[in-house]
Design a protein that fits this description.
With 327 residues, the chain is an alpha/beta fold. The chain contains 14 helices and ten strands. The chain folds into two domains: 176 residues, D-Maltodextrin-Binding Protein, domain 2; 100 residues, 3-Layer(aba) Sandwich (D-Maltodextrin-Binding Protein, domain 2). The protein starts with a helix and ends in a 16-residue tail after the last helix.
């Protein structure tokens, strides 16, 4: 009887332990909100085609977003665990009490483009022109352009041009139809416009150098909920490792871009080549512990122009904006 009782106890203990052991081996689930045809979707497509999330113990699930605002709402409501965003937005949310952190992902930046042969050859030539601005009056590139004008030319370009705010695809059409004279837009749309014959007037990388940032902090990356990080220790590092493998393939293998062609919606080889070149140029090159410090300096500069609409009332970059293990 005693032996039978001991066996029964062991069986009960094993029954209790097995579910826990199974859970320990289950991959951590990351719900990532993405624009259906954005550069983040290209990255995830490469990751999933090569089974990289599973290889790193991650269950990567994606939610298609109608627009960036939908992603911000979904992240705040807990419908997703992470979205692609910029650290300025994360900083503004942290200033308002949200528990989010930023993981840098790309150095790719926007650009000012103009039609060739229209007499717009430099920044000063934009005076009196209709300038399309993607992202609205608080867009980081627009604020950077304003700061650049103040520092280098002594005036705020917002007072010298007629800004036309709108969605990037709409502004691209407006430029092609001659209804605006120039456009400040996001890098994928800049690549498409340049492939279509538009001329690059001024890149945000040059603007940042003009503002004293020879090595600007990466602007784009992943905004991640802190409660997800706490619930899945080590999972973010596994995601970053899987992402790095995918990016290495995208950096070295043109065949990956042929597979991505339908997702990029490139109309021709020149457009695909432009998207590929700009994506690769924006990839981060190793760890850089100085990123948060440079971001703090840039935050102060932009706060002086964008005010509380940009910063959420913060005068300094909120502590903890950047994940401590950021690349």
């Amino acid at each position: 009887m005693a032996m039978r009782l001991r066996v029964l106890v062991w069986i009960c203990c094993l029954a209790l332990l097995l579910p826990a052991m199974g859970r320990a081996e289950e991959p951590a689930r990351l719900r990532l909100g993405l624009m259906a045809f954005g550069s983040g979707a290209w990255l995830v497509d490469v990751m999933k085609r090569h089974d990289l999330p599973a290889a790193h113990g991650l269950d990567l699930q994606t939610t298609s977003l109608a627009n960036p605002a939908a992603g911000e709402v979904a992240l705040g409501a807990g419908g997703v665990d992470a979205i692609l965003s910029d650290w300025l937005w994360v900083a503004r949310q942290r200033a308002a009490g949200a528990k989010l952190v930023f993981i840098p992902d790309s150095n790719a930046l926007g650009e000012v483009l103009v039609p060739a042969g229209k007499g717009i050859e430099n920044f000063a030539d934009l005076t009196g022109k209709r300038l399309g601005v993607a992202g609205g009056p608080s867009d980081k590139s627009w604020l950077l352009l304003r700061a650049y004008g103040l520092r280098k030319y002594g005036y705020d370009i917002a007072a010298k041009v007629e800004p036309v705010y709108g969605a990037p695809p709409v502004l691209s059409q407006e430029l092609a139809q001659g209804r605006i004279d120039a456009v400040l837009t996001f890098w994928p749309f800049a690549a498409r416009l340049q492939a279509a014959g538009m001329k690059s007037l001024l890149g945000m990388d040059e603007v940042l150098r003009g503002l004293g940032f020879d090595q600007p902090p990466p602007m784009m990356g992943f905004a991640v909920r802190e409660d997800w990080l706490a619930a899945h220790p080590g999972a973010l590092a596994r995601f970053i490792a899987a992402k790095a493998e995918a990016e290495a393939r995208m950096a070295s293998d043109d065949g990956e871009w042929e597979a991505l062609r339908p997702l990029t919606k490139a109309d021709n080889d020149a457009e695909l080549a432009g998207l590929r070149q700009r994506y690769r140029a924006g990839l981060l090159k190793g760890d850089d512990p100085a990123i948060p410090q440079r971001a703090a300096e840039l935050f102060k500069l932009l706060a002086g122009i964008g005010g509380s609409d940009l910063t959420g009332g913060a005068t300094e970059l909120p502590a903890g904006t950047f994940w401590p293990g950021s690349p």
